[in-house]
Amino acid sequence: MLLKGCEIVSKSIILYDAGCYLCRQSKKWIQILDFFKFFQWETIQNAGSTEWEKDVNLNEENLSKEIHLITPDGKILRGFYSLRYVLIRTPLTFIAGLFMYIPGSGLVGVPVYKWIARNRYRIFKNRCKNGSCSIS
């Protein structure tokens, strides 16, 4: 469990890119499906301004490449592994999450996740706010 001041945080913290349409939509739907309120959301744009960052060591460049999740015990999951962690903990996506825990599922899931994450700005460029998805 992470310490936040004097309180113990028992929620998983999901770090997402608020400038990314796919990330914002994922957050929106997961929040709707998170009946038990397991997750707390933090934008990577607020990096450096939150208490939990003192407890973990995250590379800013990697934060923008894929979603990161910090479990209550401080373990950091990235990309496909954070997605499956979330899906198995929300009742309506439990079955999809279960399939993602089948041995070997990462052999397909990791490259597919990385391809989508790497191309999300191209795929959703018409859905971005204030040009935040422009590719330089």
Explain what this protein looks like in three dimensions.
With 136 residues, the chain is α+β, with helices and mostly antiparallel strands. 37% of the residues lie in helices and 16% in strands. It contains five helices and six strands. A four-stranded mixed sheet has the order 4-3-5-6. It has a two-stranded antiparallel sheet with strand order 1-2. Helix 1 links the parallel strand 3 and strand 4. The longest helix has 19 residues, at 105-123. It is globular, with a radius of gyration of 15 Å. The model has no long low-confidence stretch (mean pLDDT 81).
Sheet with the most strands: spatial strand order: 4-3-5-6
Spatial gap, N to C terminus: 39 Å
Instruction: State the total count of DSSP E strands.
Output: 6
Largest sheet: 4 strands, mixed
Broad shape: globular
H/E topology pattern:
EEEHEHEEHHH
Strand residue percentage: 15-25%
Q: Residue-averaged pLDDT, rounded?
A: 81
If helices are DSSP runs of H or I spanning 4 or more residues, what is the number of helices? 5
- Computed over alpha carbons, the radius of gyration is 15 Å
Look at the helices and sheets and give the structural class. alpha+beta
Low-confidence stretches: none
Helix content: 25-40%
